[in-house]
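Form 7-S
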Amino acid sequence: MRKSIAALLSVVAIAGTVAVAHAQWLNYPTPGIPRLPDGKPNLSAPAPRTLDGKIDLTGVWQRINEGGAVRFAGSASSPAHLTPWASAIRDQRQATLSRDIPTSKCLPSGIPPDMLRQIPFKIIQTPMVTAILIEEFNNWRQIFTDGRPLPTSPEPAWFGYSVGRWERDALVVETSGFNDKTWIDGGGTPHSDALRLTERFRRLDFGHLEIEYTFEDPKAFVQPFSATIKFGLLADTELLDHQCENEKDAGHLVGK
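Output:
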């Protein structure tokens, strides 16, 4: 069961509405999950496959925390080099303690950060499109695998426009058409509307997924760079309803 459930249940219990938690299927055995003799999910079992033989990425996933928040660029441990334009923006955001991160205004931080916080997302895979449901703010992505190309002059979007193809057991996703309002990590690393993101999804076994992110943006990065992030399956649970209402107080912050 995911880590946030314990905190949620304590709040619900205080309010006297514990039944609500049960209605959200937070501890309901998921059909089709391989089990150990004691009934626990066998997360080391082979990765499932679809009827046409492709790896099935379907499931509720959460980043495996291996050392705090992810910082893709501009840190001593990162191979990425920011352009002067991007470095100045990143430094300003860090100086203000990321006060203007989009989530503070109930807006998406973008891809990949909205998939990297300790908040789950759910992949639903079909032959023509793969949907990613993001618990935070009830957001979602569509990855089209029906052979269509990326749009040539799209309206800039928070999550861009994504198309995918299979290379053996990896789903390779190309995304473009981003607006320039999102961040690529929680450290305030910016990008321009020329960002091109390539993701390689690999389900290693039943309970483990890794995604390799490759960033290309000549305005923000001196050269393309990649990083791989690991995720774990959250078995026998579901996404929660997660809304943001901070915009109700946004007017009080103007001029302060």
